[in-house]
UniProtKB/TrEMBL annotation:
Membership in a protein family: Belongs to the UPF0065 (bug) family.
Native source organism of the sequence: Ramlibacter terrae
Cited InterPro entries: BUG, Bug_dom1, TAT_signal
PANTHER family hit by this protein: BLR1237 PROTEIN, TRICARBOXYLATE-BINDING PROTEIN
Signal peptide: 1-29
Protein name: Tripartite tricarboxylate transporter substrate binding protein
Length: 331
């Protein structure tokens, strides 16, 4: 072979190899994911129901991915501060958010404007859990069931108060629905964080509250609070002893909360579907994880990214109607 032909062949081979390396780069990067620690933003305070379940999930996910998975509690504005931080994070799969019914389906209809789009700015990974609220009262309240609570509140209009984790949160709207559907005149007392609201409820500063089950249940079992009903469409497998609100005398009252993992929009699909979704679902299938969730009053629920996205769209519309009817506003 002549020197000229050898030089041309060498250049051609180099170019082909370079092209192959460039094309394979993203695939190799995806296959190697993760190569550094991951962060899950919990947009609520440490110690709340969302935080409790996320920490257990993070521990097992860290073992599966062989990388640390840390929790970053970013509180404020009904979860909007933490959610916005993830919407603006690099779309590389290393920053996730534990989204909730409140952050992604209630807040869009509650706030006049948000710094993020609950649908367009996120890549859903999977639902994690379905968590009904528990209607709980301070033990000093002379009501052993929902009908007795309704009668007690009606006997002293404008005097009883209920706690929430902040204006516009899911438990605030749960309280407003109860107030409207049962025809009650009660006072809403919003708190900045869930633990503070529960602490004051236990101390008798407020009479009742709708508290997510993982946070409420330990206090109920310790006798510090009394549970009257669950807010789901059916009794919870974790707490079958408590009737639904519908069974307890408030027809058609249903509020079900969910938690689910999301990544920033633009995160590579293989990272979302093949790696994160696959690993998270596998973790949630572990008996010890399911048992822990059940003890906290949460039912493990998983979904495909497409199913999760569809649920967010449909629930946004439903909650917008509830918010409009309740007159709740947050600015």
């Amino acid at each position: 072979m002549s020197p000229t032909r050898r030089r041309l062949l060498s250049r051609f081979t180099t170019a082909v190899c370079a092209l192959a390396t460039t094309a394979a780069g993203p695939a190799l990067a995806r296959d190697a994911f993760p190569t550094k620690p991951l962060r899950i933003v919990v947009p609520f305070a440490a110690g709340g129901g969302v935080d409790i379940l996320t920490r257990v999930l993070a521990q097992h996910l860290s073992e599966a991915l062989k990388q640390p998975v840390t929790i970053d509690n970013r509180t404020g504005a009904g979860g909007n501060v933490g959610v916005d931080a993830v919407a603006k994070a690099p779309a590389d799969g290393y920053t996730l958010v534990m989204a909730t019914t409140g952050t992604h389906t209630i807040n869009p209809g509650l706030y006049k404007s948000l710094p993020f789009d609950a649908e367009k700015d996120f890549a859903p990974i999977t639902l994690v859990a379905s968590v009904p609220n528990l209607l709980v009262v301070n033990p000093a309240v002379p009501a052993k069931d929902v009908k007795e609570l309704v009668a007690y509140a009606r006997s002293q209009p404008g005097k009883l108060s209920y706690a929430s984790f902040g204006n516009g949160t899911g438990n605030h709207l749960s309280g407003e629905m109860f107030k409207s559907m049962a025809g009650l005149d009660v006072i809403h007392v919003p708190y900045k964080a869930a633990p503070q609201a529960v602490t004051d409820l236990i101390a008798g500063q407020t009479a009742f509250a709708f508290v997510n089950t993982p946070l409420a249940l330990p206090h109920v079992r310790a006798g510090k609070l009394r549970a009257l009903a669950v807010t789901g469409a059916k009794r919870s497998a974790a707490t079958p002893e408590y009737p639904t609100m519908n069974e307890a005398g408030v027809p058609n009252y249903v509020v079900e909360s969910w938690y689910g993992l999301m990544a920033p929009a633009g995160t590579p699909a293989p990272v979302v579907a093949r790696l994160l979704h696959k690993e998270v679902v596998a973790v949630l299938a572990k008996p010890e994880v399911r048992e822990f969730f059940a003890k906290q009053g949460a039912d493990v629920v998983t979904s495909t990214p497409t199913e999760f996205a569809a649920q967010v769209r449909s629930e946004k519309a439903r909650w917008a109607e509830v918010i409009k009817a309740s007159g709740a506003k947050v600015d």
